[in-house]
Fold this protein.
Amino acid sequence: MAHPLELSYHWQPPVLFASVGAAVCVGAVARSGAAGRLAVILLILTLWVFFVTLVWRRTRAYLMVDGDHLVVRRRGRLQVLEAGRLVAVRQFLTPHGPSYKLTVRQDDGRTGTWVAPVALLRSGHSTLFGWILARAPEAELDRGSRRTLDQLRVKGLVT
């Protein structure tokens, strides 16, 4: 049975530190008695919510290989990509490293784009490219994807 890849980072420490920091700041501002402290407290809480939402969205990264199928989270739901529908792979850079946009042929003949967030997942690059080589070798790879594939081959992570 196939299993989804694990996240490549621990999200709990940043959320804990941000929460403690926000609580200390809110407490200090609330006790200050300064004019406009309510606005500052709301600003601190808004920034905290923004940060926690960003971390939560990163924890939603999902990729699973199951034979000819690649499962990713797309628009909040798990979507299954059949290998025969993969047309092209384009690399894009994120703060955590390269991830990939997969161009997929839809049922009606048009193409759509799915994101494989491999930079956020442990062994994501080797899993994705191993699947592409084994199941969808006809997919077109852009320059960055070919470079990553060459690096994975040199390291012995894909054949």
